[in-house]
Design brief:
Elements: H1 37-48
Length: 74
């Protein structure tokens, strides 16, 4: 007889639960990294209405002389 576990896939352990970024309750597997659909929806709404934004630095040296600066207008 062969071993019945031969050919079986590897079992991947579940990730450790993290606190929900909205309310700090333990996250659920279905809504990871959030604890509920409510917290997930609140976070999405903040992204969509612009509450979260990635800061952009207005630096002249970042233009790198690509012809888009004020000095090249003349």
């Amino acid at each position: 007889m062969t071993n019945s576990t031969e050919g079986a896939g590897k079992v991947t352990p579940l990730r450790k639960t993290q606190p929900c970024p909205e309310c700090r309750r333990p996250s659920t597997r279905e809504n990871y990294p959030f604890c509920s659909d409510r917290c997930r929806s609140l976070d999405l709404a903040r992204w969509l209405n612009g509450s979260y934004a990635i800061p952009v630095a207005d630096d002249e040296s970042s233009a790198g002389g690509q012809g888009g600066g004020k000095n090249n207008a003349e």
